[in-house]
Amino acid sequence: MRNPLNKRLPRELKHDFGKYLVIFLFMVMMISLVSGFLVADNSVKHSYDEGFEKYNLEDGHFTLDKEPDSSLIKDIENKTDSKLYDLRYFEEDEADSGDTIRVYKDRTKVNLECVMEGEMPAADNEIALDRMYAQNAKIKIGDTIKIAGKELKVTGFVAVPDYSCLFENNSDMMFDSTNFSIAVMTDKGFENVSSNHVKYNYAWKYNKEVSGDKAEKEASEDFLENLGDVIKDYDTKLMMSGNTDIISVSDYLPRYTNKAVNFTGDDMGSDKATIMLFDYIVVVVIAFVFAVTTSNTISQEAGVIGTLRASGYKRSEIVRHYMVLPVAVTMVAAVVGNILGYTLLEKFFVNVYYNSYSLCTYTTLLNAEAFVDTTVVPIIIMFVVNLIVLEKKLRLSPLKFLRHELTNRKRKKLIKLSHKLPFMTRFRLRIMFQNIPNYLTLFLGILIAGALVVFSIMFEPLIDDYADVVKKSQICDYQYVLKSQAETDASGAEKYCVTSLDTTDEKYMTDDIMIYGIQDNSRYVDVDIKDDEILVSNGVMVKYGLKKGDTFKLKDPYSDEEYEFTIAGSYKYDAALAVFMTRKNFIDTFDKSDDYFTGYFTDKKLTDIDDKYVASIVTYEDLIKVSNQMKVSMGEMMYILKYFGIIMFVLLMYLLSKQIIEKNAQSISMTKILGFKNGEIGGLYIAATSIMVVISLVVSVPIVNAMLKWAFSSYLYTMMTGYIPYMVRRSCFVEMVILGIVCYAVVAVLQLVKISKIPKTDALKNVE
Fold first, then answer.
1. Is the CA virtual torsion 539, 545, 549, 552 positive or negative?
2. Considering only CA atoms, which of 378, 376, 269, 469 is closest in space to residue 29?
3. Which has fewest Cβ within 10 Å: 533, 555, 595, 631?
4. 637: pLDDT strictly greater than 60
């Protein structure tokens, strides 16, 4: 026999259509976002992982400072049990934009190109650019760029697996797809471009496959040791023959430490963890909203429930009845959300990835995990939370339901309020005390929505402020890094030493720490450093939670050599993670000659040093790459978070304020009978909720600030290389509060309409 209670479901849905519509829309929005992200993330990640084999990705590469002969290459291959591939390149600035273009010959055996648009160069005056860079630079196929005095026609856009993330140098704290690009030319076209900046770069592939970070690390260490032995023997033979033009390794980078390869995959993993945490938090909040609304429904229908129980209906039957609509709404929302996720939102999130990374082509894949996380898990959470609330509520006897005594505890005495308070004030306070569970849920929702809003709007001013603090702490206008020592007569040029070491703390991603050796009484680094101590940049102190007297452990990325430094203090330098010591201490620590230096600090360009001796020139623009790139990469995602937070404000405020109005429908009806107008009643009930909304928004400000600060130190800093300080303008919190108030103002208007529709006859329905 069909359960007669089922006939009530359509009426309940119609009666509470606004509530269920709001919850449905919110669930659809959340599920579609998460589903779309997970599908996009899984599809793009699969393409990224598959590309290692599909495009024959290198196991690593090294650079020699001079062109080797074929015998040296053969000896290296034999000693290291690997195959080497010539991937020499040159770097030149594009004439009009000043952007750095790293040009390779067409790759035919390793690190193969994926043509994203157009076609590969065929003529000597043609070139293919990285798709991501071309998009940011607004370069179209058929356009002309000028490199080293040559005009080159752009024939296509490519992506290559060894530059899925455009790091110009592995030591950079952030990739740069706005000012740096890789490019490909024909062999002859490459040779025709006269460049003084050719790098003799060689990729290697092991003859025996190596997999796993540990195995790759061991294989890389063996490779480096054997490479060093071969180079050493080769140089010894050269010197014995009277040739002092020896060869050395200027760069060595195994694949497992290559940011240009790994950063993309690591970032996808961290993005997924973040979105899943967000998913579960929001689902739990919505589940509790359902629980509160279900509890209010039971309070409103206490007499009906008591009658049903007295008529012989079991508690389990009534529990099932009140579980139907919440679970059904969740299931329908999950279906609709997944459909949107696999269509509109999937494409959006794929574009977010492709606007950040130089990825090869991908194919959309069905994702069972996305189905579980966005459909099965929310339904389970919704079921469990509502079941717990209903089981607890429905334990009462039928008589208690008939009497509207919905608790086993003794009725609490009313909180005494001073009669000196105006009547309207006491009335509003009573409303607040009666709806504490609703207001607590509202506060939790406001807290989460506020965190999303502040997090989304803080980044643009944060990036601008970061650029300002970098400018203020910049050492000099030009940091020259030399390939080999060269003297200059320029006044104001100051010699310094620099190298980089890797961090060892496994809690964090590996960072490159710049180690500076500074001259005594430096005009550029205005701090007194003793020969037996070191200072670290303020970013090192904050990111790694260090303090004066702590030991900072670093290692050489090209050997097993480790260094331990005792921190004597910090130096204000926001441009990079750095260690500062005296030049004498640097020479002693790294066993260099007394006249050793690696570059110059200067506030003007040096014109008397040949370009062939210059490895790089670090300017302000280089130091703020991180801020420029974050604007490009994170802009769309920040808009999504902001709008999601605003919608969450509106929906939660509407839903919970609606419950308060409905819970007090009889009281509102009675006040109408007593002659109160709709506006006056709104002044009582809506004003009470308005006060709680404003209090919640204000109280949320320091909590949101603490939450975001914790997220930076405990999560973001562990998932990113480099450092960007936590800075939130007060205007961001002001904007959050204003947005919350504006959202509630919209809700308040809707609730005034609802109050006006409550009939006076509701006061006669009181059966107590």
1. negative
2. 378
3. 595
4. yes
* pLDDT of 766 strictly over 70: no
**Average pLDDT across the chain, whole number:** 83
- β-strand partners of 553: 564
Which H/E stretch holds residue 741?
Answer: helix 730-757
H helices of 156-258, in order, are 187-192, 213-240
Q: How far apart are CA 674 and CA 672, in angstroms?
A: 5
CA distance linking residue 321 with residue 307, whole number of Å: 15
Q: Is 462 within 8 Å of 626 (Cβ atoms)?
A: no
Angle in degrees, 0-180, between the axes of helices 302-310 and 259-300, rounded to the nearest 10: 70
CA distances from 70 to 67, 76, 77, 111, 115 (A): 10, 10, 11, 22, 31
Q: How open is the CA angle 721-621-601, to the nearest 5 degrees?
A: 95
Q: Which residue has the tokens 């071309």?
A: 134
Name 254's bridge partners.
60
Phi, psi (degrees; rounded to nearest 5) at 323: -85, -20
Q: Which residues pair with 100 in a beta bridge?
A: 93, 180
Q: pLDDT at position 755, please?
A: 80
DSSP letters for 457-473: HHHHHHHHHHHHHHHHH
Residue type, 103: V
Q: 190 versus 215: which is more confidently predicted?
A: 190
DSSP 119-170: ----STTEEEEEHHHHHHHT--TT-EEEETTEEEEEEEEEE-GGGSS--SST
Two structure tokens written together for 413: 């005495």
Q: Within 10 A of 578 (CB to CB), how many other CB atoms are there?
A: 21
CA neighbor of 170 nearest in space, from 97, 233, 106, 261: 261
H/E element, 96: none
Query: Which has the higher per-residue pLDDT, 317 or 154?
Result: 154
Distance CA 409, CA 400 (A): 12
Q: Report, in angstroms and rounded to the nearest whole number, the Rg of the chain calculated over CA atoms.
A: 33
Give the pLDDT confidence of 99-127 residue by residue, as tens digits. Answer: 889 999 999 999 999 999 999 999 999 99
Name the residue among 665, 618, 694 with its Cα closest to residue 172.
618
Which tokens sit at 129? 């650019």
Q: What is the DSSP string of 570-583?
A: EE---SS-EEEEEH
Report the distance separating Cα 134 and Cα 115, nearest Å: 13
For the segment 507-517, what is each residue's pLDDT rounded down to a tens digit?
887 788 889 99
**DSSP notation for 19-61:** HHHHHHHHHHHHHHHHHHHHHHHHHHHHHHHHHHHHTT--SEE
Sign of the C-alpha dihedral, residues 449, 452, 456, 459?
positive
Whether 162 shows a pLDDT value over 90: the answer reads: yes
- Identify the residue whose tokens are 């309940």: 12
pLDDT bucket at 149, cuts 50 / 70 / 90: confident
Contacts of 434 (CB under 8 A, 6+ apart): 663, 664
pLDDT digits (tens, 9 = 90+) for 565-598: 999 999 988 878 899 999 999 999 988 888 899 8
Q: How far apart are CA 294 and CA 436, in angstroms?
A: 16
Nearest-5° Cα angle at 424, 420 to 426: 55
Q: What is the pTM of this model?
A: 0.68
- pLDDT, tens digit (0-9, with 9 covering 90-100), for 435-471: 777 778 778 778 877 887 887 788 778 777 877 787 7
pLDDT computed for residue 411 by the predictor: 53
Determine the length of the chain. 768
The mean pLDDT value for 369-378 works out to 80
Residue with tokens 């797809």: 177
Cβ atoms within 10 Å of 191's Cβ, excluding its own: 11
